[in-house]
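To close the section, here is one more complete example, presented without commentary so you can practise reading it yourself. The ligand is nicotinamide-adenine-dinucleotide.
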Amino acid sequence: MGRAFVYVIIGGGVAAGYAAHEFIQAGVSSVVLADVQSECFEMMFVAISFQSVDLVKFEPNYGSRVSLQSKFVLADVQSECFQMMFVAIGFQSVDLVKFAPNYGSRVAPYERPALSKGYLLPEDASEVTVILYYVSLFENKGTNGERLAPKWYNENGIELILGTRVKSADVRRKTLLTATGETISYKYLIVATGARHTVDLPTSELTPGLKALKLEEFGVNTLDAPNVCYLRDVADADRLVDVMQSRSGGQAVVIGGGYIGMECAASLVINNLNVTMVFPEAQCMARLFSPKIAAFYEEFYQSKGVKFVKGTVLTSFDFNSDGKVCAVNLRDGSKLPADMVVVGIGIRPNTSLFEGQLTMEKGGIKVNGKMQSSNSSVYAIGDVAAFPVKIVGETRRLEHVDSARRAARHVVSAIIEPEKTGEFDYLPFFYSRVFTLSWQFYGDNAGEVVHFGDFSGNTFGAYWMNKGHLVGSFLEGGTKEQYEALAQATRLKPKIEDLAELESQGLEYAFNI
Ligand code: NAD
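Output:
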């Protein structure tokens, strides 16, 4: 049993959704999109058939039966926590098998960035829809883009099948095998399987129980405590909101000082929790911020009541008789009381389907400037792809939505118009919004750093210089024009003769170049 397709996308995030959009824009409709973000949803739906969408909802533990008249197939893939799966691939009727409680999928590809920002805030939560919007990359339309809800895929000839896992891939034969034994063959495959929390086990070893044990890599057992929260998908975010609201006024411990830690800590404060952040480095956002920039944000957080415990990690939890965590024990011997814990200790790319078959680098699938892997029929984009970042002169894996969007656009062009498509030339971009603050970063934070602006005021920033050239820039509290100027200046990689001069010109330098 099997079906053949020309274009198959494995993934259910921004990269996959944007790539699907690009195919449609290019007039290609026979795309198979395989959803991924299906680890822990209680309700499932499957969007079936070329002409119309049936929305089928299931209660946990219940199977069902639906009729399919699919022209194209979109198979979900990476739902590593599912024990039992269903598959919907073009038969007149398909048996939907029973699946484990709380596992399934209810949403089409969506945007994650909202999950750690507005989605967690009491006043904004109802306004935030976790649906993917296709926003024109070059017109900067904010969220007024095209709404890529399940209906959109259907109307555009893409079969979107959620809650279906691809169990294995054979890049030599160009086939994918789903959990129910169906084979999907492709001419071109785009891998957009993203990343997950730190524990990266082979799919076969993953069970729902393991999902909560992401701290086990560090020898910490959470015992599935209901008040230990992660944040990677919309179900995690919903759970975090529930726990946060039920512990109002209590103590929250945030493990990790990266993006999730910083953004969640701000939301916890706004939701009236007393927050302590724990991380091993000497400063927050150690992957990106200079010590001076980090000091500004830490002081700002402290002014909001956040405490920082740096240079240590947790070693174990104490549990109360309900099985909830009531304290966090740290390596330095101290104990932090906790009514809830939020864990943001990084992610791992979902590469397991292709281990041993494709060349890997930096923990991801190595691709060239056309996003093409070591197998010429397989392309990779988003968090899972390690691609040549030209401006930096090395291969990198960039965990960011902007990179996913732009790579999606590039890969579709590279596949359908290879002769007209050059090398992906991406300027790394990161941003965050916390409390009333908002920053953007472009390029690379390598080499020497000079700071500018008023660190006690609203607008300040930094430039990074490497081998005599400006390679990176950062700005807090900028205007749209200022951010654009910084991005342009960074892209030019200008030679810097005089650091002191650059420092004194500050933001003006970006406008004058
Ligand atoms: P991260 O890599 O940004 O930060 C990980 C943090 O965890 C670091 O501070 C690290 O030192 C710390 N850590 C690692 N092991 C630890 C341990 N045992 N105990 C305590 N701390 C430990 O990862 P994240 O914050 O988990 O974010 C996950 C992903 O989501 C990243 O790819 C990130 O880029 C992305 N994200 C991005 C944004 C944004 O761009 N604004 C927002 C949210 C999430």
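Once you have examined the tokens, check your reading against these statements. The pocket of nicotinamide-adenine-dinucleotide is lined by residues 116, 218, 255-261, 263, 278-281, 286-287, 313-314, 344-347, 399-400, 430-432 (CB under 6 Å). The longest helix spans residues 401-416.
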